[in-house]
Design brief:
By secondary structure, the chain is of the alpha/beta class. It has one domain: Aldolase class I (TIM Barrel). It has twelve helices and 16 strands. Strands 4-15-14-11-10-9-8-5 form an eight-stranded parallel β-sheet. It is globular, with a radius of gyration of 20 Å. The structure holds flavin mononucleotide (FMN). The site of flavin mononucleotide (FMN) has 27 residues, from strand 5 and strand 15.
Length: 411
Amino acid sequence: MVKPTYFLPTNFTLPEDTYKALNEDYHQTLLEPEEHIKNRYSIDVSSFYGPYKIRHPFGKASGQLSTNQAQVKSDLEGGLAFTVLKTVIAESEDHQSEMEAWKIKAPRMEVEKITSQNGEEGYTVTWKGRGWEKTLEEYLEFLEESLALAKNYPIIPSCKYHLPPLGEEYKVDEYIYTTQKIYQSWRKYREEELVLEKDFSATLAGTDLAGAKEQVLAWLTEVPAKIKEASDASIYLGVKLMNTMLPDEFQREMVKLLLGPDSNWLGDYAVCFNRLFDPNKGFAGKIGVAYGGYDLSDRNLWALEELLPNKPTRPISATGNICSGRLMLEYALRGAINGQLHTFFQLPQTEYAPIEGSRTQKAIHELLFNPSKGLVAGLLYIRDKLNKNQEPFSFIEVTKLNPNELNEVKR
Ligand SMILES: Cc1cc2nc3c(=O)[nH]c(=O)nc-3n(C[C@H](O)[C@H](O)[C@H](O)COP(=O)(O)O)c2cc1C
């Protein structure tokens, strides 16, 4: 198993008075945490998601936690930075869908502890479902209800389109019909260009190894063009890249090809990377399920190191075991400007900050304020390492930093 270079220590050590202040904040509910962070520590945690400025880097990844308006509303009220909606399966005007097999009803999810091959304990969520199980029409209703909640809160639809075997034709009518429908719904509530994610999911990574590399590369390079050609809409397209079952080195090839300096790829940003796939693990009568934990973040961080000390030529939205501010910062040091979380929002409450509030509020508070592994502690630690004591400092600066400047800290 690959091992990334951690540029940051497991726990940040801070001067005593700073630690004390942070620990005090960790234990209290704050109405405007980002403002508080700016005032008390001269730290700006804001960032970007596509064309949007966001309050901090943490948002919700596409999945079972963004399938209805109530969930999106509680994200918004709980102080999340953005929400990516569950992935809908593209269909044509006559409601046919080549990817019909992705519409699976599977309500049961199991949150389990998982130890990585490198020996770190984290969590994974096991289930056997795939995409949005209902119709496109119902998805559009959900999208519109969500967009109607607030104008300035980023809500991103996600879609899975037809992926033909090599040499076969794409079902272009499904691309056209679905993209136009999503755009029409978007337009009712948004003036800016359509921000859309295309999901290449973990279950696709199980693709038979023979010819898999050629197949995956063909999809990754051809699909963005198909989506952009499918409507007159201006689309800011995010492509959620998969963790394939090909040798680890392929993940780095993918990064270099799509996100390296010579890339002419049509994806506007990349979500790196969807979950790993275990072809042998059984769950609820199905053999072969996706999983996460530190194996996932280890492989993702390692793959993104390919371009260091340079940064990817497209913005990165990180995903995979973001369970602390520290992990978010490790992704940021590889160029990620925000993080999409799923598993973290399903953990036992004891993993969150000890404050009153909703699950989302407590989770975000934990990610921001944990005094030894939270985002603010990490930013204070990095500022100190750079000898910028007390100067205003920001999360965005970290995304541009050469991590070698931090005098690599071995764990
Ligand atoms: C139960 C479950 C359902 C998911 N469904 C989707 C999905 O529909 N579309 C998608 O792009 N990713 C999906 N994912 C992947 C997540 O969006 C996320 O990228 C991944 O779980 C890694 O983040 P995490 O380690 O924080 O969970 C799902 C993940 C889980 C656990």
